[in-house]
Amino acid sequence: MPALPRRPRVEILAERAIEVLIRLCGISAVLFVFGIFFFVFREGSHLLFHGFNFREFFFSPEWYPTSQSHVRYGALALIAGTASVTLLAMLLAVPFGIGTAVFISEFCGARTKETLKITIELLAAIPSVVWGFVGLTVMNKVIIQLFHTPIGLNVLNGGVILALMSVPIIVSIGEDALKAVPDSYREAAIALGVTRWQLIHRVLVPAARNGLLAAVLLGVGRAVGETMAVLMATGHAVKIPTSLLDSVRTLTATIAAELGEAAVHSDHYQVLFIIGILLFTITFAINLAADLIVRGVRRE
Amino acid sequence: MVTPPKMIEIRDLRVRFARHEVLKGVTLDVCRNEVLGIIGPAQSGKTTFVKVINRTIEDSPEVSVTGSVRVNGEDIWKLKDLPALRRKIGMVAPLPVGLPLSIFDNVAFAPRMAGLRDRNELEARVERCLRQAALWDEVKDRLDSLGTRLSGGQQQRLTIARALSHDPEVLCLDEFSIAIDPVTTMRIEDVLKELRSQITIVLVTNLVQQARRLADRTAFFLNGELVEVDRTEAIFSETPADLRTFQYVRGIFG
Amino acid sequence: MFQATRFTLRKRRYELLARAVFFLMTLLIVTPLILIVGYLVYQAWPILSLDFLFTNPRNGMRSGGIWSPLLGTIYLVVISLLVSTPIGVLAAISLNEYARESWITRVINLAVVNLAGVPSIVHALFGLGAFVLFAGLGKSILAASLTLAIMTLPVIIASTKEALASVPVPFREACWNVGATRWQTIRHVVLPNSVGGILTGVILQVSRAAGETAPIMFTGVVFYKAIKEGDPFAYGLFDQCMALSMHLFTISTQVPDVPKALPYGTAVVLLGAVLAVNALAILVRLRLRSRRKW
Prior knowledge:
A: mainly alpha, two-stranded antiparallel ribbon, B: alpha/beta, 4-stranded antiparallel beta sheet, 10 helices
């Protein structure tokens, strides 16, 4: 039988070229993460190293970037705004999210499971500006009606909207975590005669706790980083909230609201980039923590 | 150039996965056109051994390989063209694998990747290999159907056809019968008997009797060491060189 | 005979209670979706029509339609995905098919996960600093699209990796055994069987790119820009443009005296497009499952 021919030269060269391209793209993700940090840092770095008042930034609630006489960059109120809205959102989203994850994982037949998972996916797909719009119109009216306040754009509004936005990620990762618990745990517990509730509360949740914790962390990361929805739903008051019905401004909303008006490379502009660095660092830390926790699960 | 008498020459082969030494200094020759049987209990390094020959061992994590391996006189570690080496060695894995392509494309895959594009030559090659693997009659009317839909025994024969499709000089079979029925096993053994005059065969097997049936010489591996290698009759006789061979062959351990 | 004891009956009641509680929790999350969509459609009804889609906003955006934002969004989505899909797929191939387990791969995986978690406003800042200013592209469709591309990249990498990993390893080994190179194996066996999963991932990012506002707000999208109605080539790469998401934000917060139905109509079109695209991705995924080749 005739011997096999050789591969055409062109083909071999093309293959080598593609493999180079592949390797380049492989390191691209790292490049882009560093790139993001680098370029955001770059725009705020001058001020950061030349007289940035860290004390004022972190501890003063007085945010007056456009004042003619006395410019102040105290971001405490903004930090409090982000924290309050995120906290409320998590207080709502975590129990409901994990509850739904439990329901999907333990109480559903295959058909309902599929339908519910699709619904949650569609919920996750709703753009943040649409959520913001909902907060601006629907939630606004509801809050005004229920609480008789003059405006309904406040911590409560933002918190509820943010909760609805964070739930899908908690449900989906939480459900994965529960699915990863081996069936042998369930079988052993049932053989001992426990109720469904005991099974969930004493066996499954503890077994899946790392994955569930990671799910919550990622939900927090989502909430902290959200921009448009909170911009539209929490009002525009830069002050530390004392009640759920107070309007606030978050770190993210501040950047979005003020970047357009700040002159490029001005102090105000640079401070906004510094807020960006802060946000990047916070979400980076959260993602790192979630990743380490999940890694810990895999080792078990 | 004088053709070297030995097909494969191996000197002091050591393979380690991280800390664990899997092959501990194996020295062995494979003669041209012989059937070399390799027997031994599980975890004795047999699979690792054949994976060294076609250099697929390099894909395992944290592996380190030392020692000299020559195929047809050439040092395989110095070869630039790895696919060419792998085409010289046909490999049949323990678990049958049908690629998710048509049966025709399964067998035509290797020649195509090597550069053969002519349809007529491909068809001739596919038919020849399927006939040699004793699969042609069963699939000749459905060469377009998916290779993954064949039975285990058929997929193993398909793997043999694939292995033959690139004109190998050595055919390595690693416990090929482990997942297939006895009838197909016998058919494949007949195939090997037909092939033995044309190519060199390295037959790793956990079925001691299979080595007895097919192999000219047999090597006994135990815990990563080559205990002994000799003519098959000697290995299975009352007086092999090593007591452990005697015991293993008679099922006293293993 | 098995007679239910008092203990068993109590257990059963707790079971039902637990089931009811979890069911209610789920219901509480699922109903908003339905209510929101319903309410938005109801409020937008008077204004929804084909005309709405193909007319420009008029009269200071107090009347007219959404043609220029709609076209702008289409441009942004198409260009950003033309950039991020090839890079993302090749990156995933690199990570799943070529990389050895080592600290480098772990760093890269960490980078991908972190890139996915970057807040959208930080993407905006990055786009401003890198594409608009440093690369000198100015505020343009190109800069905005590249910013969106970086945003969608990590998810495309992750979903492609998953699709590649679902092809069993024995197939690859069988190919290597017969002398195929790594690339040949990928090109002829792994990729063709991963296309569905890759497609699903890309489609999902379409909806994400269409819905985001912050990354494009400062990199090339503006409040208002007049373009020729009905002309699909009305925008140029270095032009600024309008976008649906930004338009919704503008007319619901920046423009006074907008008739009620207008922002609702915009929201419905945006939401409808996003949900339709996601539904398409889900259909693709379901169809995939039934056409598996092994």
